[in-house]
Amino acid sequence: MKKMNLFILCILIPFALMAQDAKMDAFIIDLMSKMTLQEKIGQLNLPTFGDFQTGAVTSSNVSEKIRKGAVGGLFGSSSYDDIRAAQELAVTQSRLKIPLLFGLDVIHGLKTTFPIPLALACSWDMPLIEKTARVAAKEASAVGVNWTFSPMVDIARDPRWGRIAEGSGEDPFLGGLVAEAMVKGYQGSDLSQNNTILSCVKHFALYGAAEAGRDYNTVDMSKVKMYEYYLPPYKAAIKAGAATVMSSFNEVDGVPATGNKWLMTDLLRKDWGFNGFVVTDYTAINEMTQHGSGNLQQVSAQALKAGIDQDMVGEGFLTTLEKSLKEGKVSLSDIELACRRILESKYKLGLFEDPYRYNVKKRADTEILTVENRLAAREAATKSFVLLKNEKQLLPLKKSGSVALVGPLADNLKDPMGTWFVAGDWNKSVTVLKGFENVLGSAVKVNYALGANITEDPMLLAQLDLNHTYKKRDRADLIKEAVDAAMKSDVVVAVLGESEAMSGEAASRTDIGIPENQMELLKALVKTGKPVVLVLMNGRPLTLLWENENVPAILEAWAPGIEAGNAVADVLFGDVNPSGKLTTTFPRNVGQIPLYYNHKNTGRPYDGNLKEKYKSKYLDVVNEPLFAFGYGLSYTTFDYSDVTVSSKNLQGTATLIASVTVKNTGKYAGEEVVQLYLSDPVASVTRSVKDLKGYKKISLKPGESQVVTFTITPETLKFYHSDLSYDWEGGEFIFHIGTSSDKVKSVSVNWEK
Ligand code: NOJ
Question: Is the minimum distance from the CB of 311 to ligand 1 under 6 angstroms?
Fold first, then answer.
């Protein structure tokens, strides 16, 4: 009976979908038949509400343009009232009453600010990540936002690049899973529901490879590297159904991405089957002029013909396409195709049925920043923390005695929210000081001192807004107060790192250490002889050589979001056992960058013998990172057995089972991310030393063990060849299973085609 129902559904669903598509087609054909050329071009225009800016240009006369039908959507507001007013203007005063899209950078939550995306990825917990996006979509849709400019899935191998904070790190396999989870979380299974919104995969493509980690810088890479390492997360997002894509600022293969037909049409639409619309990044069409692609009319025509549908802020489309059409530089069908794709998205959201579907006062008043959502943010934060060091089991701390809590991020409401908290209200965040009080009550005496400002570097001070935290005080006095607090306490917790504006867009750094004045504080604290726990808040990997050598315990808390303080207290005092694993490599110094685990071998690999001169190494630092991809400790310990495989000799489309037994050998229950890597030692295209191919997150009580198995098929063995064909080659394969990319047990098998 059940089987029969399933059979009927399988027949009926495709028909129902076809009927829906036909209905949409008929609606849009009819609507477009009434639209003037100017109104069609108007749909291609995406200004901001007027004051929201992530570039030099601001949008002007927006209301007037809405009335004239010269606006397809607006972005940059989370105000219920502003969104309602703008939609009212569009559907009552424009000739054809076409509703607007409302976009916003809901990057890690709307009002319930979750940890930054890089932190979330360190949870390796896809259901959790999906849930954060779901909560974000529910809150955003309640105020009227129906389109988020997220997920950012740019692979980044350079921590100087501030935007590394917004992505999921350096691995394409993991990046693809995160992309999928976020798209599903935002869009749900039905876009016309009033709590699901359009996602926008960005920045297409390769933005994370900006040379020297300097934002907006140029990119140049081989196609093999692109396909193998940089494109997979975008592709995964498209496969998961991402409704829109944002072009990147950089060039791809010598042509700006925003005007790159190969990228936007051949790859994205023809190869990957994308059928949503593509929006530019902020004034990216105009910026093609600076890249050297011609004047505004030329670059606008190039972008449209390349496959761009909507122009963010720059108004190149709005001001030049009519002329280009007259001159035969673009065709009417180019314009109509873009217009149609945007109208289709509006249709799928249900905006033509009800333009206020996403703007519901009752929901805006009751569904935002709820207790439940805050709890989700707290849980997500604790799961994203990575324990980098824990000498002599200093952590977890006892809930008794006294603690000195010091540092510029210890009693700071704003910076722990992280980059791009956009609509979040930092006055509603929980500081670490407050979190200690919430979790400890009066059980522990907390001696607080600021100890240092975030930075005293004049160049940083000139560019960062630190008014919410900066104290004009003598550096030595601040340190003395902190040392006094330390002397009165059993243990010191120093919360140090970066302000929220030190990572994210236009926030690249060449020195990625803790700022020098904070280091001075840390050194003074260590000198007291008291045990010091360093809690880091930052948006990128930092260089932590001195810290790792001299501080007994280090917890990487990233920018934890609105529940920062509660989450830090939960973990430091043992209510939650940390389980995060790095998804980005921590170098020893900036000179090692770019440094990533899935690098190629050289012909002269260095094997640790300093006496051998002609090897691929540095004179002054080892090749290894300080903390490798996949690394992260727990309050407990896990023991890994050797790897066993179902067969050492395989043929063709066989399936291999690889397994290990993992045992919790410590005193605490804990979670472990068991990681599977692959090496392909001989191939017609050189392969990286290892690539992540799978993982399992398990939970074990003290003394408990579990057999963890991975099912491997030839699909796992495939790679891109020079002609971009994707296949595997028979021979030896080495499977590594372990707790991090640099701590694995390995087994070699022979697998012939
Ligand atoms: C520029 C950023 O690169 C992009 O990620 C963002 O979505 C837009 N500005 C809009 O704010």
Answer: no
